[in-house]
Amino acid sequence: MTMNIIVVHGMRKGTLNQELQHFINSMLEDATYQYEVAFLESETRNPYRVVEQVIQSGERDFRIIPFMIFSGAHFLDDMPAIVQHFKQQYDDVSFTICEPLGHHPLMVDIVKDKAMDALAQTDYDAVILYVHGSTKYRKPEEELRAFREQLTLPVPIHVLTLYGSISYKDYLEEVVEGQKRVLFLPIFFYDGYLVNMTKKRIKQMNLDCQIDFTTSINFDQRLREIINDRIDD
């Protein structure tokens, strides 16, 4: 039977990893498949330790499910590095790396519902989709633009990132020029440090446009369906 390894970014400090573990376990409590949760930022439950423990228990077939929105450096560098590490040590192990969760059509539905809920309450001139991005790769930006093309809203949709060639620090002022009120929608799994830092920095920019933030995805229950589909693929 295939062992599914759900790889989450996590944090080395604080209780975030425990909270993420609890959420994933609750979300998948009725799962009929095997899975383990690993954190890139962890001394004790990083993917290398988790996979090694499972190999020692006798498993040889693995499916890696990156708990990530798009294909940043963690997906493009870290996931292949994990696979290469174990294939160099064991001749009889096999790995499948699944696509990031943001590629699934349900993610478009999640984001659209969040935007439409806000638009139903307030008149906005535009919506800004905001993701992590990457300083090393342009693929997350390409995927974000493709994501925007799948999304239909009654107002213009702009895309910005934290890192990369379309960073909000460089382009937000240009995007909101001439606008009175704009909705800023972070496509992150939770309202953590990066989202809160972005809010603080945008406030410090003293823009003429009012910018309202939605919450992040914040563990929408439809993530369960996305993970199940990744496992069934």
Give structural attributes.
alpha/beta; Rossmann fold; 2 domains; four-stranded parallel sheet; 8 helices; 8 strands; 20% strand; elongated
Domain tally: 2
Which sequence of strands runs across the widest sheet?
2-1-3-4
What is the total tally of β strands? 8
Identify the quaternary structure here: single chain
Proportion of β residues?
15-25%
Given as residue ranges, the uncertain stretches (5+ residues, pLDDT < 50) are none
Query: Structural class, please?
Result: alpha/beta
Question: Which CATH first-tier class of the largest domain would you pick?
Answer: Alpha Beta
Mean pLDDT: 96
Proper CATH architecture of the largest domain: 3-Layer(aba) Sandwich
Any idea what the radius of gyration is?
19 Å
Order of helices and strands: EHEHEHEHEHEHEHEH
Distance between the termini: 15 Å
The number of distinct helices, counting runs of at least 4 residues, comes to 8
Write down the overall geometry: elongated
Largest β sheet strand count, sense and barrel closure = 4 strands, parallel
Portion in helices: 40-55%
CATH topology of the largest domain: Rossmann fold
Task: Provide a concise account of the structure shown.
Helix content is 42%, strand content 20%.
Could you describe the 3D structure shown?
- GO terms for molecular function: lyase activity; metal ion binding.
- It comes from Staphylococcus argensis.
- Pfam families: CbiX.
- This is Sirohydrochlorin chelatase.
- This protein is of the alpha/beta class and 233 residues long.
- The protein folds into two domains: 3-98, Rossmann fold; 103-213, Rossmann fold (3-Layer(aba) Sandwich).
- The chain has helices at residues 16-27, 47-56, 73-89, 105-121, 139-149, 168-176, 193-204, 222-232; strands at 3-8, 35-39, 61-66, 94-97, 126-133, 157-163, 181-186, 210-213.
- The chain is elongated and about 60 Å long.
- The model has no long low-confidence stretch (mean pLDDT 96).
